[in-house]
Design goal:
The protein has 18 helices and 36 strands. It is α/β, with parallel strands linked by helices. The protein has a seven-stranded mixed β-sheet with strand order 17-16-18-19-26-25-24, with helices on both faces. A six-stranded mixed β-sheet has the order 4-3-2-5-6-35, with helices on both faces. It has a five-stranded mixed β-sheet with strand order 27-34-33-29-30, with no helix packed on it.
């Protein structure tokens, strides 16, 4: 209202100013006194002849004088030129969206700190009465006050400052940016704003993984937002960063009193070679090994191995930590595996009654391969062999893995039991053979992607004379745990295994081919995770009828690793920050459970304030624990405890490795991504000044002042010119006009 009153005042003054020369002109005309004089009659007649020209010259001078005053008055109003208005201002509705993903923690002075300072400048352009919202671009639910601390509130500089100060103190989070899912929320918040000018300010490091992969749908939503969108990139001094991108079990025994190999992958994300620091390995939170990292070339990775020794069953946590750099949040990674006191295996075939000494009986070779590590009654692998017809008598929940060797056709009942068994965490392994009926397998288990089988079972095929009546194994390219072990075997040893027959396997969606045949690239070993368990199919037989694989060293390695991998469930105890997790645990079902965070490198623990964890029964001696996303807000090792504070299981929580690539989509790359969206602008420097200019438009004050001066000078020149033109006339009439009222008026 005050701006309108001011505008009225200045408009009134401008009108008065413009009227002044007109009034003077009119008054001067009225001031003349007419007197009849015969001698002036001749002069009057001559003057009449020039009156048209004189009136035109007078009008030009008067117009320039009025325009001078009008432009001066307009300049005093400080008008601006915008797309919507030329003069005045309007209320502003402002949304400040701050990226607080893990990559924003990069730098000695972090990107997040730079973002907070940019937010201060942006919010500093607001005025009392403006509406303001502050939102952080993270994975929290919009109902969480931590994500939206301010929403459509009246601008209060002190309140905004408190929020930004607290955010700076807390620092950025350790989770991935949620730009894709945040854009619809920004549109929703923009629609709520009741203001003449709507603005959305996205303050971010413009990480490539976020902005380059922005979907067309999200871009479309940005274009539909009825607000001016300003993307304000903030950066750190460089893009150098090293991270532990993965830590995983590779090989070895995961039985009681065993030794297992773990591999940590360290990546140099920067453009410069890195040659500093060590890597430390922790086992159950205690430092057990330290190794130098050595040189890691730019944009390259290095794999470093670690051997873990253990002598008790239960969940084993392993952590890898590298030396501190400009982004410390990704320098530590965790994993958990389950150490078994023993592994219970059920083997079944159609010909178990033929005797295990029969070389065509797959159970003979399976038992010999599996029992290599059974050193005593209380440890190793316990094998139970039965005829397939007796499977209905077995309690599947008493076993960890079930192997079907040349079983013709499981009944629908058995198939349903196997589905439940694998979904609840059990392992199933199927070997081919002459008895296999592919149609009945398809009927029992299905041939859709929803089937627990990793592949559709086809017909038997035999090596041709072109292949010398035999096939050989290819060195695996898969990253599956079984494949990682087989890669350690010399290539000539792998090629030593000869196969003459196999069934056709057509992998289904979600499956992984572990091993292929060289000659026709046909899958030999295909695996698929199903629920908490897994299913693996081998396209050849478990005995010597289709190949000599059963007497080859690779056979024992493959079987042992398959059983170990299936039962230890590497990866089943892994979770991401802010992601829910469900884990299966064996034992007596507790009345409730709680979380406890274990600190690495010490014995300190931290109780997590959470509601009681949801516990549900699977069987009489196993249950599931459901952990909510809001309960795992930080990386680390989380212990699930029963009411007596006894450990039920462990969860390893890591950050998203995609955040470790802190390269940004700057300049032209960012413009290519969003620069074509009409309502989106990219502001690189001085965001407050740039925003004010865009908000208010171009200031016309200086232009108007310059035009006013030009008009003033021009009218002065013309007045003098016209007067001198009269005085220089050659006639008596001109001499008389010089002294006339016309000349005098022009000089006024």
């Amino acid at each position: 209202m005050s701006s309108l009153n001011l505008l009225s005042v200045w408009a009134t003054l401008a009108a008065i100013g413009v009227a002044v020369p007109i009034i003077i002109h009119l008054l001067y005309r009225k001031n003349r006194k007419e007197t009849d004089w015969a001698a002036m009659e001749l002069l009057r007649r001559a003057l009449v002849q020039r009156s048209g020209q004189i009136k035109l010259e007078d009008f030009i001078i008067l117009l320039l004088r009025c325009l001078t005053l009008l432009l001066l008055a307009a300049a005093l109003l400080r008008p601006v030129l915008t797309n919507k208005e030329f003069i005045g201002d309007s209320k502003v509705g402002m949304i400040v969206a701050i990226d607080d993903s893990m990559s924003m923690n990069h730098g000695a002075t972090t990107r997040f700190e730079n973002a907070i300072e940019a937010a201060r400048k942006v919010t500093g352009t607001a005025s009392p009465g403006d509406k303001i919202s502050i939102i952080f671009l993270n994975e929290k639910d919009i109902s969480d006050i931590g994500k939206v601390p301010l929403r459509s509130a009246d601008y209060d500089a002190n309140e905004v400052s408190k929020i930004l100060d607290q955010a700076k103190k807390n620092g950025a989070s350790n989770h991935q940016s949620n730009l894709e899912n945040s854009i619809p929320i920004l549109k929703e918040m923009a629609d709520e704003i009741k203001a003449g000018t709507k603005e959305i300010h996205i303050i971010t490091d413009a990480q490539q993984s976020d902005w380059n992969n922005l979907s067309s749908e999200a871009k479309g939503i940005l274009g539909d937002i009825s607000a001016s969108i300003y993307v304000i990139p903030v950066n750190s001094e460089n893009d150098d960063n090293r991270s532990v991108t993965s830590l995983q079990y590779v090989s070895g025994s995961l039985n009681n009193s065993g030794v297992a190999r773990f591999e940590a992958t360290i990546k140099n994300h920067g453009n410069n070679d890195a040659n500093s620091g060590d890597i430390e390995f922790y086992q159950d939170g205690n430092l057990v090994s330290r190794q130098p990292l050595g040189v890691i070339e730019s944009n390259s990775s290095k794999v470093i191995s670690f051997l873990a020794n253990y002598n008790k069953p239960g969940d084993l946590s392993v952590s890898a930590k590298i030396s501190k750099d400009n982004l410390s949040e990704d320098n530590l990674r965790h994993t958990v595996v389950n150490i078994r006191p023993n592994i219970r295996v059920l083997c079944a075939t159609d010909s178990a009654s033929d005797g295990l000494e029969n070389s065509t009986n797959g159970l003979f070779f399976l038992e010999n391969a599996l029992r290599l590590r059974s050193t005593d009654e209380g440890a190793g692998i316990q094998v139970t062999s039965v005829d397939s017809s007796d499977l209905t008598l077995e309690k599947f929940n008493e076993y960890d893995i079930i192997i079907l060797a040349n079983v013709s056709s499981p009944s629908v009942e058995i198939a349903e039991k196997l589905k439940t068994f694998t979904t609840n965490g059990g392992g199933l392994m199927i070997f081919a053979g002459d008895n296999i009926d592919q149609e009945k397998y398809g009927q029992a288990f299905g041939i859709t992607p929803e089937s627990i089988l990793p592949a559709v079972i086809g017909n038997k095929t035999t090596a041709s004379e072109e292949d010398n009546n035999q096939w050989t194994l290819a060195v695996p390219s898969s990253d599956h745990p079984i494949a990682r072990v087989l890669k350690l075997i010399p290539e000539d040893m792998i090629n030593g295994a000869k196969l003459n027959s196999a069934i056709e396997l057509k992998p289904l969606s979600g499956s992984q081919t572990i091993l292929n045949l060289v000659e026709n690239n046909a899958p030999l070993l295909v695996s698929k995770n199903t629920g908490e368990g897994s299913v693996t199919i081998c396209s050849t037989s478990a005995d010597r009828s289709w190949s000599d694989l059963a007497i080859h060293p690779i056979y024992t390695i493959m079987i042992q690793q398959a059983v170990t991998t299936t039962t230890s469930k590497p990866g089943s105890r892994l979770a991401m920050v802010h992601s829910p997790k469900s884990i299966s645990i064996e034992g007596i079902i507790p009345s409730n459970a709680k979380l406890q965070k274990n600190n690495i490198g010490g014995n300190d623990t931290e109780d997590i304030e959470t509601s009681k964890l949801a516990v549900s029964a699977i069987t009489n001696d196993s249950f599931k624990v459901e952990v909510k996303s809001e309960d795992i807000t930080d990386t680390g090792i989380y212990n699930i405890l029963d009411p007596q504070d006894s450990s039920l299981g462990i969860i390893a929580v890591n950050s998203d490795s995609a955040e470790s690539n802190i390269k940004v989509a700057a300049g032209d790359a960012l413009k290519e991504t969003i620069g074509t969206i009409n309502n989106v602008s990219i502001i690189v420097e001085s965001p407050d000044e740039a925003i004010l200019n865009k908000r208010t438009g171009s200031d016309l004050t200086s232009i108007l002042l310059m035009l006013s001066i030009i008009c003033f000078v021009l009218q002065s020149i013309l007045a003098k010119y016209f007067t001198n033109k009269i005085s220089k006339g050659e006639t008596d009439i001109a001499a008389s006009l010089q002294l006339s009222n016309v000349a005098a008026a022009r000089r006024t």
